[in-house]
Write a structure and sequence with these properties.
By secondary structure, the chain is of the alpha/beta class. It is built from 14 helices and 14 strands. A seven-stranded mixed β-sheet has the order 2-10-9-8-5-3-4, sandwiched between helices. Strands 11-14-13 form a three-stranded antiparallel β-sheet, with helices on one face. The longest helix has 21 residues. The chain is globular and about 60 Å long. The protein binds pyridoxal-5'-phosphate. The site of pyridoxal-5'-phosphate (PLP) has 15 residues, from helix 3.
């Protein structure tokens, strides 16, 4: 039998598409004593999570909670609760996660129009507008704010206007943006927004913040057939998060502790300060990669600071480079997904992982390995370009 003593996860520097590194305060919170899920002290912690979630998401929506499960549980809760069989849905997809929303909406029985953009460009405003008009009587328009497969940020406001002029609800995936780039649910007038704990909130994977506007909640309440998912039925989950405290599932106690501490850390730092930190480190990394002679993949003007896609140079072995980074430097970066497999690397600077030291370490380590692979990376040029971007940090 294998001994339990073989359990010894190393400390990695997580610079991939998630999970990101967690703050020690978050990890410490997870070792606190387990409370019953109806213990008054636990309920108080949940209420605080609720208040902090509203502040971090920029909303006064009453229906604001966290679903049990990773970011995908938030996506599935939003889609399965809002889409009924026969509902018309338009999804603007510019990458892997947009496609995942399409699959879910189809499984929910929706009649889905997918408006596809190139993997590296933002979601197509005119295309979505035309699709909404052509379909008529659309119930839900969905987009991904921060597309982690491509490193692209899609501005939300135009889609809110398109959806609301057509009498539809707007769903926005903010899994990678929340806590890293501005997410302002009420200012956007977005109707269904979800995220995850493991990206810019810097807690382990395991919960998904979610908020619904009053209109979206009305749509959930007005369903003719119950939601296809029992576990993620928001009417049932909400009855536990609100003052009724009706048992639905046993809350993942330690993950709620982690969420609580992660949100407190975001608010202690201050949203604006935190956004500026991610912006500065992300732009410095991007300047550094270009300074080394590499080519960024995402369209200029739409690049996320928290997730950078960079093209793998001709003749360089994707797996060998990522393997060497992990083995020699304990750095994790991400490979390409779907259409971008073996074509790009994905470098995340999310939450705790977003700091100047990691920017410089990533550049020098990657530069050295690229030179071994025969690509003449200008390491000095890259480091000085990044350092210029970090000045004043
Ligand atoms: C990571 C991610 C998800 C899924 O989150 P999991 O925690 O992996 O379930 C969904 N959407 C986007 C944009 C993501 O980056």
């Amino acid at each position: 039998m294998r001994s339990a003593s073989t359990f010894n996860p190393p400390t990695r520097i997580l610079l991939g598409p998630g999970p990101s590194g967690a703050h020690p305060r978050v990890l410490r919170a997870m070792t606190a004593p387990i409370l019953g899920h109806l213990d008054p002290e636990f309920l108080r912690i949940m209420d605080e999570c609720n208040d902090m979630l509203r502040r971090v998401m920029g909303t006064e929506n009453r229906i604001t909670l966290a679903t049990p499960g990773t970011g995908t549980s938030g996506m599935e809760a939003a889609v399965m609760n809002l889409v009924e069989p026969g509902d018309k849905v338009v999804i603007g997809s510019c990458g892997y996660f947009g496609d995942r929303i399409v699959q879910m909406a189809e499984r929910a029985g929706g009649v889905v129009t997918r408006v596809t953009s190139a993997w590296g460009s933002p979601t197509d405003v005119a295309g979505v507008e035309a699709a909404v008009k052509a379909a008529g009587n659309v119930k839900l328009v969905g987009i991904v704010h921060a597309e982690t497969s491509t490193g692209v940020q899609t501005p939300v406001e135009p889609f809110a206007k398109i959806a609301h002029e057509a009498g539809a609800l707007l769903l926005v995936d903010c899994v990678t943006s929340l806590g890293g780039v501005p997410v302002t649910v009420d200012a956007w007038s977005a109707d269904a927004v979800y995220s995850g704990t493991q990206k810019c909130l810097s807690a382990p994977p395991g919960m998904a913040p979610l908020t619904l506007s009053p209109d979206a909640w009305d749509a959930v309440k007005a369903r003719e057939v119950p939601c296809n998912s029992w576990y993620l039925d928001l009417s049932l989950i909400e009855a536990y998060w609100d003052e009724r405290r009706a048992y639905h599932h046993t809350a993942p106690i330690s993950m709620v502790y982690a969420l609580h501490e992660a949100l407190a850390l975001v608010l202690d730092e201050g949203l604006e300060v935190r956004w500026a930190r991610h912006e500065q480190n992300g732009r410095a990394l991007q300047a550094g990669l270009e300074g080394m002679g590499l080519v960024l993949h995402a369209d200029e003007g739409y690049r996320l600071p928290v997730l950078t896609t960079v093209r793998i140079p001709e003749g360089v072995n994707d797996a060998e480079v990522r393997g060497a980074l992990l083995k020699r430097h304990s750095i994790e970066i991400g490979g390409g997904l779907g259409d971008l497999r073996a074509k790009v690397w994905r470098l995340g600077l999310m939450g705790e992982s977003s700091n100047p030291g990691n920017v410089l370490l990533a550049l020098s380590s990657l530069g050295k390995i690229l030179r071994e692979q025969g690509f003449k990376a200008d390491i000095g040029g890259g480091i000085s370009a990044a350092a210029a971007g970090l000045e004043g940090a």
